[in-house]
Design goal:
Helix content: 40-55%
Structural class: alpha+beta
Distance between the termini: 18 Å
Strand order of the largest sheet: 3-2-1-4-5
Largest sheet: 5 strands, antiparallel
Number of domains: 1
Order of helices and strands: EEHHEEHHE
Shape: elongated
Number of strands: 5
């Protein structure tokens, strides 16, 4: 389990938005450059489960199960690439029957499949039951 300290920014029933500085666990993570490369900076804000009933401004400890990180990586990186490849191959084969150039079919169906895969990954991420949660106060 990965634990990090954070500050509560906003509270809603059963969940809280926390802000944390990327440090500690991030320094030992092999993908540490990927988070900031995706538009984040040194600070990160995320919604977490709040079983303790914290208030805005409190310092808390949040935990993310290790398996969650692996599943999220597979959903965000592997699934879209596989969808792109499958869509491109299928589009290349179906395009001549539709009167299109095979490259156009590959690009079109590959792009559509990848976009759908990102949508699926987003929905799956929202439905994750073992996501980050507050485990204590500092």
């Amino acid at each position: 389990m990965i634990e990090e300290q954070a500050t509560v920014v906003e509270v809603r029933p059963g969940r809280a938005r926390v802000q944390t500085l990327r440090s500690g666990s991030c320094e030992s993570c092999k993908a540490r450059g990927g988070c900031s490369g995706l538009g984040g900076g040194r600070e990160a804000q995320v919604w977490v489960s709040d079983p303790l009933g914290v208030a805005a401004g409190e310092r808390v400890v949040i935990a993310v199960p290790g398996g969650t990180v692996v599943r999220a990586s597979l959903l965000l990186y592997l699934l879209p690439v596989l969808a792109l490849l499958a869509g491109a191959v299928l589009g290349n084969r179906l395009a001549p029957g539709l009167g299109l150039h095979p490259d156009l079919g590959a690009a079109g169906l590959g792009g559509l499949a990848m976009a759908l895969a990102f949508g699926v990954a987003r929905l799956a991420g929202r439905r994750a039951v073992d996501g980050p949660r507050i485990v204590g106060r500092v």
